[in-house]
Design brief:
Blueprint lengths: L7 H12 L5 H8 L3 H13 L3 E7 L1 H4 L2 E9 L1 H12 L4 E7 L4 E8 L8 H4 L4 E12 L14 H7 L13 H5 L8 H12 L5 H8 L3 H13 L3 E7 L8 E9 L4 H9 L4 E7 L5 E7 L2 H11 L6 E14 L8
Antiparallel strand pairs: 1-6, 2-4, 2-5, 3-4, 3-10, 5-8, 7-9, 7-10, 8-9
Helix pairs in contact: 2-3, 9-10, 10-11
Length: about 325
């Protein structure tokens, strides 16, 4: 990522895109009180510098996939190349280096609820340890607040997409699913990877990439969005927003308190992700703090005061190799 500095307008644009990743620049410009050209130019600058990406993110619970959190201990000299190789795999959804490059923590997204593909990883000589846990139930409905705090309530209301704004209602299996897994079509299997690579790709571009007509792509994407099968996430380095400490947490929580603790953490402004898991530590979280002093305060004062938390293991994020956006082969 090339050096870039975010001003207020940049942060407002990021907040607007987090509300609706495919919002028209003209709609954003009207709310922000600037020209369409200004908004487009700002986004192009951020996108071309790799500071920001908009990615289409499928909901694994609705697509019938299993999300496996895999923690690899690796020799330091080999961790970064291995993380880059994992990021290029089509079955990884998130890859990060942690603990000064001695660990790789990633999420494998496996079709049909299958097991994590660990056999090949365990045979690699640079891997000294492997641990896998299935992510069970995400506890957060929103996003990390550090990237969604630049707009006021009126601006948020004006930019938040509404069901009435989408003229195409869900049809067929999507209309009948009721929160259950839905079968993916041949169009979905080409459309979802294209949206992961660029959530703001135009309909003609999506049609070319998927091999389907523009009208079919437009209708299907509308259906997928209305049914919440796919949402759009804005990827931005928290450091650009003034937050330098990102930390992975594995918590062991008394079962009777697990739900309460998960919901409490999900409400914290530091929280970026919270989910129950399988394994001896039954709650996983990612928190983003202003600096290491703020992280220390969060760990001691916040987590230390929560009833039911028996143990906490932490690992500082060293670098993200892949967030939600697809990493192309090569």
């Amino acid at each position: 990522m090339r050096s870039v500095t975010l001003d207020l307008l940049d942060r407002q644009l990021l907040h607007a895109l987090q509300l609706d990743g495919r919002a028209a620049f003209s709609a954003i410009a009207e709310v922000l009180g600037v020209s369409d050209r200004t908004v487009a130019r700002r986004y192009d600058r951020l996108r071309s510098s790799d500071a920001v990406r908009v990615a289409g993110v499928p909901d694994s619970r609705l697509t019938g996939h299993a999300d496996w959190l895999v923690r690899l201990s690796a020799l330091p000299f080999s961790a970064a190349p291995l993380a880059r190789a994992l990021a290029r795999r089509p079955d990884t959804a998130w890859v990060t280096l942690a603990s000064s490059g001695t660990e790789i923590v990633c999420v494998f997204r496996v079709a049909a609820g299958g097991p994590a593909p660990l056999a090949d990883l365990g045979r690699l000589p640079q891997v000294t340890g492997v641990r896998a846990q299935r992510l069970l139930r995400p506890a957060m409905n929103g996003r990390w607040r550090g990237r969604t705090s630049a707009l006021d309530e009126d601006q948020i209301a004006a930019l938040r997409p509404s069901a009435a704004a989408d003229p195409v209602p869900p049809a067929g299996p999507l209309a009948e699913a009721g929160g259950a897994a839905v079968p993916l079509t041949r169009l979905d299997r080409s459309l979802l990877p294209a949206l992961a690579a660029d959530g703001r790709a135009t309909y003609p571009a999506l049609a070319r990439r998927s091999g389907w007509s523009e009208s079919a792509v437009r209708r299907r994407l509308s259906e997928l969005r209305r049914a919440a099968v796919v949402t759009f996430d804005v990827e931005v380095d928290a450091g650009l927003l003034g937050f330098s400490a990102q930390c992975l947490l594995w918590l062991t929580v008394t079962p009777a308190r697990l739900g309460d603790v998960a919901r409490a953490l999900a409400e914290d402004p530091e929280a970026a992700f919270v989910s129950t898991t399988t394994g001896p530590d039954n709650l996983f979280a990612i928190v983003v703090c202003r600096d290491t002093d703020a992280l220390d305060t969060y760990l001691t004062d916040r987590l230390g005061a929560l009833d039911g938390v028996d143990r906490v293991e932490t690992a500082l994020v060293t670098a993200y190799t892949r967030r939600a956006a697809r990493v192309e082969q090569g």
